[in-house]
Amino acid sequence: MQYNLSRLKGRWTHLSRIEGGIGFRGPGEKQIEIDRRRINDRITHLKSKLEGIEQISKTKRKSRKDIFSVSLVGYTNAGKSTVLNRLTSSHLYTADQLFATLETITRSKTLETKERIVISDTIGFIRKIPPYLIASFHATLQEVIEADLLLHVVDISHHKLFEYMDTVSQTLKEIQADHQEMILVFNKIDLLPRNQYMFMKKKLRIDYPDSPFVSARTGENFDDIENAISKKLAHSKKNIILKIPNQEQKFISYLFDNAEIIEKRYNNDSVRLRIKIPLQKYKQNYILFRKYEIRNKSVAKRKPKRK
Question: What is the DSSP letter of 190?
Fold first, then answer.
């Protein structure tokens, strides 16, 4: 609408010639005024709807603030929705076209380490994105800004992949999301001939040694993405040893559902667990963890009291 508003002049000159004479206004000029008013009304209505969408998105993000969040970013048509479908066994709409995704879509996933995460698909970036378009997609881009981890999906088969990577990096900088942890994912390896794929992989490994090379369409090497996410998560976990009384079954069940159990040993009246727990969940149940945590401290001998 904003794009069309500045381009109305000259559209109706063919109608303005129907009537003439001093003091007369042609119907073309009247039509421009009508169109301008309609477009301004439409812009006001859409801005109001966008504010409502943004408020709903904010509420949703607040409800999952304690869950590790991952956002997919990348140039438009890089295959982000297909990556999300493959990661979460979803069936989102995908198409070989620009802007197939126009809204934020979030799905949950439980990793092999029993860590639950949420993954969000976002709108694809484009080169020289207009400021008003960034404002329109603010609710979507907010998911990127507040994510714990970004998956930058790159179409390795595209001849402008480096230019597109720079565009995404620049856009992230513009929305102040360039400081986030990021995993670069080279997608669509199935579209390259084998010899070209090996050449590109060898070349890109120099600058991006930890990046997965995958095909979201066929699923080739897709476990590498989950492994890369798990490695990032490992740095946000606390490794502790607990000795928990058997009567604390609720807390024990919580640990088996939400923590990675490294070692377990049952005794007559208690269970000893060595676990890796996300820092967020550790903080949620801080009192219980501190109560049953075995800390390697040398206990100083008490000095005898003076008589």
Answer: G
